[in-house]
Amino acid sequence: EDGRNVRCWRDPWIPNVEPLVDLIPEHSNLDLNCSLGYMVLDDGTWNLDLFRIWLPEMIICKIIGTHQFGIYLNTDGSDRLEDGFATTGGIVHDHSGQRILGYNRFLGSCSVFEAELWGILDGLSFLIDQGYKEVQIRTNSIEMASAIHEITLDGQTTALIRRICQLLSQI
């Protein structure tokens, strides 16, 4: 179905949501017979700017669906200090960029790579404890992302990666 036969505002096309017209207090300027296909841009994405004129963000999130992650974990806050000690940190934010929390930790002696892994582990642990079921991890380290997928390193690093993989399997 390409949406040409579904009326955007009158038909209940979003799972568990009443027809959108019922959610809009003033709809005198709205073409109630507009087809759903009209709400899709040339690149195949939803015309969210148009939906946002009339609908609350909660409904916009349902329109977007599960293809867009709701929570992002950025872990590019790791650093190795001059004395050889490392710190890590990260920021968790929602789909609109609103910060949910920031975190950091002093790690002692370890590499920046290991500090990045600790940052992911800390962030995932928090998100799971808070009940989040879906998260996208963002990092600027291809080496780290590859290591998590391949688990090929030795010692402490491998244990960190295994623990991260365990946490990822829970969400």
UniProtKB/TrEMBL annotation:
GO molecular function, one term: nucleic acid binding
Domain RNase H type-1 residue range list: 74-169
InterPro entries, per the entry: RNase_H-like, RNase_H-like_dom_plant, RNaseH-like_sf, RNaseH_domain, RNaseH_sf
Pfam family, any one: RVT_3
Protein's name in the database: RNase H type-1 domain-containing protein
Organism: Gossypium davidsonii (Davidson's cotton)
Native organism taxonomy: Eukaryota, Viridiplantae, Streptophyta, Embryophyta, Tracheophyta
